[in-house]
Amino acid sequence: MKDTIVVGVALHSEAGRRSGQRAIAWAAERAMDRHQRLELLSIVGGAVGMVGEAHLIDQARDDLRSQLEAEARTLADAHPDRLDVRVRVDHGNPVAKLIDASKDAALLVIGSDFRGDAGPARGPHGIRIAAGSHAPVVVIPDADPGARSGVVVGVDGSDLSERAIAFAAAEADRLGEALITVIAWSPMEVSRNPGLYPPEYLDALARLSEESLGLSLAGLSSTYPDLRIERHVERGYPSEAIEVYARRARLTVLGSHGRGAIARFLLGSVSEEVLRRLPSAVAIVR
């Protein structure tokens, strides 16, 4: 299934159906462009082992399967012979089940009912899924992309950042969009005379960041000769610098810093902060 995009679809509410359909549409476009299969996956959650619950689970599974099959037929009718769409319904903890489904997936896509700055993206779920996933995760907000353009990627010079750049460049090339690269720097915090730094110190930090960005992008133009690359070196906190560009972008790509059995379920602070505010569709790459 490594050539399969798994879409986690929540159909239990109007908001869930709306965000799920946005996620399906995004994933279907990518599947056709990349010649990948599409699997629509819904999870029946909330079971606590009460008497009579098994019958309710069976009813819910049948209902969800019918809805997913209707979504699959709509896609097949709209794109005949271009999409291989499958459906699956499972039951259990939705976060754990989606993380498990990511083991054999090329990409996991989930919708979010987040609609602005009033709260986090799907509560803890989007963050926990992105942190624990074995595959890259794309979180699609419940918002019309409108006139957005460009693919933003956060750069910090790490190996994980290199993978994020590779993912973002491939998406920008696929979409015919500019790759907007952002690296941020900030001076060390000092208690005495905060804000008063030697100019040569600030200049050195800026130059070091520019050099790191240049090294990270070396060779990218030869891989994607038609790709337009924007380079932005910003003074400030990384998540805030990235969000300035992400608010106008079609997609924002960041690395996850989870490591190990426990740390795998934690995101790096920058990725988590951007994902909580969800200024655009956000991809978290491992």
TrEMBL record:
Limits of the UspA domain: 3-141, 151-286
Alphabetized Gene3D superfamilies for the sequence: HUPs (3.40.50.620)
Pfam families, A to Z: Usp
Superkingdom assignment: Bacteria
Family membership: Belongs to the universal stress protein A family.
PANTHER family registered for this protein in UniProt: STRESS RESPONSE PROTEIN NHAX, UNIVERSAL STRESS PROTEIN UP12
Designated name of the protein: Universal stress protein
Organism: Microbacterium aurantiacum
